[in-house]
TrEMBL record:
NCBIfam families registered for this protein in UniProt: PRK05282.1
Pfam families from the UniProt entry: Peptidase_S51
Family: Belongs to the peptidase S51 family.
PANTHER family, per database record: ALPHA-ASPARTYL DIPEPTIDASE, PROTEASE S51 ALPHA-ASPARTYL DIPEPTIDASE
InterPro entries: Class_I_gatase-like (IPR029062), Peptidase_S51 (IPR005320)
UniProt protein name: Dipeptidase E
Naturally occurring in which organism (per UniProt): Plutella xylostella
Keywords associated with the record: Hydrolase, Protease, Serine protease
Length: 240
């Protein structure tokens, strides 16, 4: 099946030394402009205060020349998603976000709109996690319980946002992240995992997936290999 999917997946909304989302401004604006999108929906469900969260992102995005509305303001979220050309799913807690998406019957709706209709999906942190095959490799605490850990499935692998490299002189830092990811990869249901450093993005255009942004990423294979991929790398093979 040839997908017409378009997605931009960010490791985070923040990067040290940059205002919020500034490091990804070019990629976000380019993705929206490429599809002639001036208005889109923001999905704030990874946090509890929807109005506050939406206002924070709105204050950043709208000076860039786009109009944004919070999904929580629509009486029928499914209808709103079906009518939108693009959505931005914000970060926070992946368990809370996924649970809410399931409760509102939005998981299947978003999947269809992205994979079959070409709706642009922009995600950050938790919004990136739920775009994958599942949230098994999130760093978040399970503060609520979604009915499933299965994600939307826009990409057919797992992502670990905010990936931290192990530091030899500091015990129990990044090495714990590697151990946890390798523990997941021993499970029969596991998929490849890409660890996205802060400032790393994945640009998805149909069957093509590129690493963009400020920093690169690392790939964890099921056989134990850990491979470095710098900015500009084509990682479309991840879904093979």
């Amino acid at each position: 099946m040839k997908w017409c999917r378009q997605a931009l997946l960010l490791s985070s909304s923040t990067l040290y030394g940059y205002p919020m989302l500034e490091f990804a401004k070019h990629e976000i604006c380019s993705a929206l402009t490429k599809h002639g999108i001036k208005e889109f929906i923001f999905v704030p469900y990874a946090r509890k205060n929807y109005n506050w969260y939406t206002s924070q992102i709105k204050a950043i995005i709208e000076p860039w020349g786009f109009h944004m509305t919070g999904l929580h303001t629509y009486p029928n979220p499914v209808k709103a998603i079906n009518a939108s050309k693009a959505i931005f799913v914000g970060g926070g807690n992946s368990f809370l976000l996924l649970k809410t998406l399931y409760e509102l019957n939005l998981v299947a709706t978003i999947k269809k709109r992205v994979l079959q209709d070409g709706m642009l999906y922009i995600g950050s942190s938790a919004g990136t996690n739920v775009a994958t095959i599942g949230i098994h490799t999130t760093n978040d605490m399970p503060i609520v319980y979604p009915p499933s850990l299965n994600g939307i499935g826009i990409v057919q692998f797992n992502i670990n946002p905010h990936y931290i490299d192990p530091v030899e002189s500091v015990q129990q830092q990044g090495d714990i992240r590697d151990i946890n990811i390798r523990g997941y990869l021993k499970m029969e249901h596991s998929r490849r995992v890409i660890g996205m450093r802060e400032g790393a993005n994945l640009e998805v255009d149909g069957e093509k997936i590129l690493i963009t942004g400020i920093n690169g990423a690392v790939l964890f294979e099921k056989n134990g290999d850990k491979i470095e991929y710098p900015v500009g790398s084509d990682v479309s093979f991840m879904e093979n």
